[in-house]
Amino acid sequence: MRCDKARERIARQSSPAQLAGDRELASHLEACQSCAGEWRIHLALLAELESAPSAPPFPDLSPRVLSALDAPRGGSSRALQWAAAAAFAVLALALGFLFGSVSVTQAAPPESMAATYQRAITTLPSNPAELASLEYGARPAARSLR
Amino acid sequence: MPDWADASDSQLMEATARGDRDAFSVLIGRHQGPVLSIAYRFLADRSGAQDAAQEVFLRLWRSARRYRPDAPLAAYLRTLTVNLCLDTKRKARFLVLGQEGEVPGRHDPHGDLEARERKAALSAALQTLPEAQRMAVVLFHMEGASVKEVASLLDVSPKAAESLLSRARSSLRERLRPLLAGS
Fold this sequence. Notes:
CATH superfamily of the largest domain in chain B: RNA polymerase sigma factor, region 2, helix turn helix motif
Distance between the termini of chain A: 71 Å
Oligomer: heterodimer
Order of helices and strands of chain A: HHHHHHHH
Radius of gyration of chain A: 43 Å
Strand content of chain A: under 5%
Shape of chain A: elongated
Structural class of chain B: mainly alpha
Strand content of chain B: under 5%
Largest interface: A-B, 29 and 46 residues
Largest sheet of chain B: none
Helix content of chain B: over 70%
């Protein structure tokens, strides 16, 4: 086993007892002084971690939490923001609709367009066959596009 | 008023869901230790740990009606705490860049100076680890969680949890080498 591989394997050990399950690493540690030193440092780290001090005594959290239950939540201001945004959106839509309808009623068709309509109405053929050809005339063209 | 001291967690949660503050208060007293411990060891800040623990219990109060006693309440609270701590740290990274955390070793009145310095060094080294690695170390080495539990709490596979722990131990070993070599 190479030393870099052995050091990787050392980092995987979460307790001294685990070494018994890794015969390859154990025999490398017996042969390699440098990795054996690394293993000792690793054991010292594990010991430090296991003996890390517990949290210091804290005062009872209950009064603090219960009083926070009565305090206004940040969520209410968020709800207010949502309501304001919704009201603004409704107002914008209403104004858009209002101005849109006013401009539609005020807009007169352009003169050229009115003349075209008038011509089409007055020059409509009275013959049913001609009318039919006018009505379905567009279909073959549409098909040819496909 | 019923005496909640002997009630089970499920009974207390049912009462909490009905808005019973006495029952909720008993729940807080019963579970605040592990919640504060994880928060304090991860954040290395006393007031930050208290804020986090308060938020955990406020979330518990708000979700009391939805709570189903499929899993032990302690496990549910542990998940809430881990998620909140990771979230708090992610937000804090943008708010207080470079601010050093409190050193847990300072609160150990019985340890000698050398031991306290070692604890302080360990705590400082822990704070340099990425959040997921640090939380894995706190849960596995300090809170006694199994690799499977760590994986579940961090929402990763057991193999990924092993890898987080392994990388964390390597980093800590490098950072604390002079200190550990002398011990």
